[in-house]
Amino acid sequence: MLVFHCTKATSDELKIEVKKASESAALELAADAWHWQIHAVRIRRKLVYVAMEQQSRFVMVIWGLKKGDVQTLVELFFERLLYLLRSQCAASGLLDEAAMAQALRRLAEQQIHFTSGTDRSVQSHINEVIQS
């Protein structure tokens, strides 16, 4: 399961209703869920989304989307993530082509869950990315 923790700015820009953190806890998120925090900001009047993985602080910056375009945001996120994972697997030689294809297929089949609530530490790192 892939969990996107959305800031208020993100839920406003995406025009989505996200579940509150207490409601998300009631859904019993999988223990092995992958948590990403997403923040939306306007830079030079352009909408920019910054997604940061909570454990590693790996960051993706996605821009050029229109307000409320959730589908394209998810597609671009997965496209970049799959490209990164494929290149890392090929460079390290940890997985052969068949195992890599199976792993990437499993990743693409993940359920996506949007929730409100943020981690202040992750948000401070996101703010540093935005300021640089």
Structural features, described:
45% of the residues lie in helices and 25% in strands. The protein has five helices and five strands. Strands 4-3-2-1-5 form a five-stranded mixed sheet, sandwiched between helices. Helix 3 (70-92) packs antiparallel against helix 4. It is globular.
Describe the SSE topology.
Elements: E1 2-6, H1 8-14, H2 21-26, E2 34-43, E3 46-53, E4 59-63, H3 70-92, H4 97-108, E5 112-116, H5 120-131
Parallel strand pairs: 1-2, 1-5
Antiparallel strand pairs: 2-3, 3-4
Helix pairs in contact: 3-4
Distinctive features:
5-stranded mixed β-sheet, globular, alpha/beta, about 130 residues
Residues in helix, %: 40-55%
Structural class: alpha/beta
Radius of gyration: 15 Å
Residue share in β-strands: 25-35%
Overall pLDDT score: 86
Kindly report the spatial arrangement of strands forming the biggest sheet. Answer: 4-3-2-1-5
Number of helices: 5
User: How many individual β-strands?
Assistant: 5
Distance between the termini: 31 Å
Helix and strand succession?
EHHEEEHHEH
- Largest sheet geometry: 5 strands, mixed
Summarize the structure.
With 132 residues, this protein is of the alpha/beta class. 45% of the residues lie in helices and 25% in strands. A 5-stranded mixed β-sheet has the order 4-3-2-1-5, sandwiched between helices.
